[in-house]
Specification:
Layout: E1 7-11, E2 14-20, E3 27-32, E4 35-41, H1 51-61, E5 71-75, H2 81-89, E6 94-99, H3 102-111, E7 120-124, H4 127-133, E8 139-144, H5 159-168, E9 169-181, H6 186-196, E10 201-206, H7 208-211, E11 217-224, H8 230-238, E12 245-248, H9 250-256
Parallel strand pairs: 5-6, 5-8, 6-7, 8-9
Antiparallel strand pairs: 1-2, 2-3, 3-4, 9-11, 10-11, 10-12
Helix pairs in contact: 1-2
Length: 281
């Protein structure tokens, strides 16, 4: 059998590369303009390589009964890592994936095909425009992992966007977002304040070093109208190779510390990562 070879292709919003993992026979890293987007193991779709993806996976694992299907809306497609994960861990789930980059989706489906009968529908559209047209009370989970290059677009950071997310979620639904920031956390604090204006329960999952302001990094925001299983999340994230901390309740309120919800006219993209923060050679 010949070794897999890297694939490079110009897509709608940059230069995409699929690079094989020499340690896992059918695993691939997807980057766009050098920024890691996704890691996919076609033989083990439940394997999550990226730390933030594992944290999103931990939250998904604590929802509903283990293995029971969910209706999930993914904003941002990349290599379709989490849709594959849910198709494997919660068979029968109905999933919609919204990705603005049509050429990127075509590349991924061509080289990293979805399993037959996975129940994953792909849509090429702007995430907020698609969200605004989606039916109310139609999703159990909304996962937002949208980056233009290495930044979350401004129109996906405002109170207007958060209202649309709440509208589409069912009453017992859960919102998850992959965000990135560094001290003094102006962006992250504003996002927590924005979702706190609409949701009764919030949690934030990140490495202790990131939360202490030692470096730039990812943080997973979780929002719901009902109590979250924080003890289970804390156990799962603490057991990772790179342990994370779950902030909740008073810790979230202290972190927000007077930050205000973001109005559409004030919305800005997440900060540019420092050089080398997520880069791949």
């Amino acid at each position: 059998m010949t070794d897999p070879i890297p694939v490079t292709r110009k897509v709608d919003f940059g230069l995409a590369k699929l690079m094989p993992d020499v340690d896992r026979r059918r695993a691939w890293l997807l980057t766009v303009d050098g920024a890691p987007q996704s890691y996919v193991d076609l033989d083990a779709p439940a394997y999550l390589e990226f730390e933030y993806a594992r944290r999103l996976g931990h939250v998904l694992d604590t929802l509903a009964q283990p293995g029971s299907p969910l209706d999930v809306l993914h904003l941002g497609g990349g290599g379709l890592t989490l849709p594959r994960y849910l198709a494997a861990t919660r068979p029968g789930s109905r999933q919609d994936v919204v990705e603005a980059d049509r050429a990127l989706l075509e590349l991924v489906v061509e080289h990293l095909p979805l399993p037959h009968g996975a129940g994953i529908a792909l849509h090429t559209a702007d995430a907020r425009a698609w969200l605004e047209s989606a039916p109310a009370d139609s999703a159990d989970v909304l996962v937002a992992d949208v980056f233009g290059g290495s930044r979350v677009p401004a129109h996906l950071t405002s109170l207007g966007y958060a209202r649309e997310a709440e509208r589409v979620l069912r009453q017992d639904g859960v919102y998850l977002a992959n965000l990135a920031d560094a001290a003094p956390f102006a962006f992250l604090r504003s996002q927590l304040a924005t979702f706190a204006a609409l949701f009764a329960e919030l949690a934030l999952i990140a490495e202790p070093g990131v939360l202490r302001g030692r470096r730039f990094g990812n943080a997973v925001l979780v929002a719901a109208h009902h109590p979250l299983d924080v003890p289970a999340l804390a156990r799962l994230t603490a057991a990772d190779a790179f342990p994370a901390r779950v902030e909740h309740g008073p810790g979230i309120r202290r972190f927000i510390a007077g930050a205000r919800p973001v109005r559409d006219q004030e919305a800005v993209a997440s900060p540019e990562p420092p050089e080398g923060a997520f880069g791949v050679g």
